[in-house]
Amino acid sequence: MTLPGIGEISGRLQSGIPGCQVEVVVNGSPSAQNSLLIDRKHGLEAARLLRDDLHLDFCSNVTAVDWPDRQKTEKIKSKQLVDGVEKEVEETRETIIPGYLEVVYHLFSMTRKEGPVVLRMRTTNRTDDVTLPSLTPIWRSAEFQEREAFDLYGIVFDGHPDLRRILMWEGFTDHPMRKDYVPPPDDELEVLGER
């Protein structure tokens, strides 16, 4: 039996898990490796279904992406009275789209020798709501890689068996892979590293 397409997998998740929100994220690059964006509330259930029903028994890679706030500019045309004459006026509106942190899992079926299926989950923002469910209980290989995402991006994995820094020292207070990270001067790093 072959692994179903990404659209069919999305349908299985939605029908198998009541309330699960799944979006197919289209990849326009030559690899065309589309992915599944799962809401974080159902992330653990979705992972379990992918492992048990589709035999995606190996998580080869976990990585994270920082998506900072971005500005969207729109030009809006409207009719207004200008000096007693109705004219078409063009206004520019700028909207801030809040940023978020995203975790990406690459899943394979070792028994069927198929994959990858790419699974994504996103935090609500980049500041105070950065918790996602840990998928380590489903795929043990995610343990160190989720710790790395915690350490370098600041994503908190709820249910992780050993969530602590893995690359930076315990007293380090920032997340060096964030796009807005500013490293301290070298002399401050030396002092911090000696503590």
Element layout with pairings:
Elements lengths: L5 H11 L5 E4 L9 E4 L4 H12 L3 E10 L2 E13 L2 E13 L2 E10 L4 E9 L8 E3 L9 H11 L2 E3 L27 H9 L1
Parallel strand pairs: 2-7, 8-9
Antiparallel strand pairs: 1-2, 3-6, 4-5, 6-7
How would you sum up this structure, described in words?
It is a single chain. With 195 residues, the chain is an alpha/beta fold. It has helices at residues 6-16, 43-54, 143-153, 186-194; strands at residues 22-25, 35-38, 58-67, 70-82, 85-97, 100-109, 114-122, 131-133, 156-158. It has a single domain (6-67, 100-194), classed as Beta Polymerase, domain 2 (2-Layer Sandwich), CATH 3.30.460.80. Helices cover 22% and strands 35% of the residues. The strands form three sheets. Strands 1-2-7-6-3 form a five-stranded mixed β-sheet, covered by helices on one side. The chain is flat, with a radius of gyration of 22 Å. The N and C termini lie far apart (56 Å).
